[in-house]
Design goal:
Number of helices: 19
Number of domains: 2
Number of strands: 0
Radius of gyration: 23 Å
Mean pLDDT: 80
Low-confidence stretches: 503-509
Order of helices and strands: HHHHHHHHHHHHHHHHHHH
Amino acid sequence: MKKKYSLIQGTIILTLTGFISRIIGFFYRIYLSHTIGAEGVGIYQLIFPIYTMCFSLTAAGIQTSISRFVASKIATKDEKTAKDILVVGLSISLTLSILVSIILYRNSTFFAVNILDEPRCADLLKILAFSIPSGAIHACVNGYYYGLKKAHFPATFQLIEQVVRVLASYIICFVLKENKMAVTPAIAVFGIVAGEFVAMLFCSTSLIGRLLRVSLPKLTLTSYFPYAKKILSLSVPLTANRVLINILQSAEAILIPGKLREYGMSVAESLSTYGVLTGMSLPLILFPSAITNSVSVMLLPTIAEAQATGNKQLISKSIDSTIKYCLILGIFCTGCFLTYGPSVGVALFDSALSGTFIIILAWICPFLYMTTTLTSILNGLGKTSSSFIHNSIGLSIRILFVFFLIPYFGIVGYLWGLLASELVITFLCVHSLRSYTKLDFNPYEGILKPVFALGISIGITFLIRGILNRLLHTSILLALVIELSIVCILYLTILYCLRSINVKKIKRK
């Protein structure tokens, strides 16, 4: 019961923080779209494959390894080894991050011209290089706290990072405008550096305070290398997975604008379209994934702990519940994005194109949210190679769609590729988990009920839409927020009522 409570509590904390961060991020993106324009957003978005590549090489796999091993050691009451693993993982990650940071800084022009095919990214990459060591420390400390199931610490650090990022960008932009200087995408990159640095200071202070309250780990060379081997054995497949993902994402970043030009767009139009997709539409589709990301983060140590103690029943129940609730969330989001996508695109970003993208992307929601959590379960079980293979196949499909379909169908060809890849990854994840444990999925609970509840909820809301529009005709955005809130409340209420009816029927039988 205590384990279940810590999972739920951690998920709620991370979800609330994730929503707050994403709300801040949305207003930040709206601010950027008005400050540096759609083309500027497109140039800014181009650097993210390089940024995530650096994070993947230096911290992502090690963070997951730390989380998993700390959770398994805490489950067996071996807190000393858990601290040793943190120190070893942190030292490896920090060393790698410094090396990668130097390489990126010295070769920023090469990466911008030869990889991103956009020389204007060179200065942005130079600035970005300073954020990598801070990000590595931040990630490792987060991994340690996730392993301890103390989600409030990473949640706080995440919120601090996001707030500082936005404030730093705003202050720099204000100073530039006051001095009548050009505002470029560099303001957003300076924000990343400031956010990671301040978050690193907070998480380091928190960690040192915790280690001082208990006994500091005492590592020797003879104990260091076995721990390093252990961490690397799990992190290397994860890192390879992340690196491959980022290579393919970099290929996407390079190919999409180029293939859009083959379709008939100019350089400015292709960058603007890419900026609208990656800086406006996709973030909106990913907004509800704050819930599934939080569940994923908390599931990994929970599954690792269950595996360490031989609790297969908890693992099986976690998989079934994950599929069911991800479908409930995904079906709701699909319905809402299909219904309100165009209005939201115009109200938030003043872009009809973003609304068109939202409608097409809406169909990936159930699969996108499910793959996030199922992949986390696979990683928690130590099946990192399976995750690697699944993501490789899915991303290869996306690249094929980019290469062959965009020249003929435009950006829509890429959106079809996203849907196809998420379908394939979901199927592969479910297949892998079925080989480990028996799945007891009920289509009536996971699909039919949510679809019925969503249809009724949207239907009722349409009936009262006229009243809302008359009352709030001056604020389209406020009317949308209220309407979506009503749909959400009705959806959850109907699902709860249907659940209650089933319970009564079972009792009668």
